[in-house]
């Protein structure tokens, strides 16, 4: 895909994560609501995910979606979490 080095950011929106993973933003929001991905609520349907929490999620995904997370291009994961 040709990802460049991303400036280091500490926080991500669910939409930004979803865009990079090529999945619907509602999927990421559901991960948050399930308690699988730690996030801080910014307003009604907006969450803020810290990069360390996103990294922990990718390193230790929940069992029900472990195969799905493992199928994500490692280059995309590195781009998001460094």
TrEMBL record:
Q: Which domain of life is it from?
A: Bacteria
Full protein name: Helix-turn-helix domain-containing protein
Species annotation: Nostoc minutum NIES-26
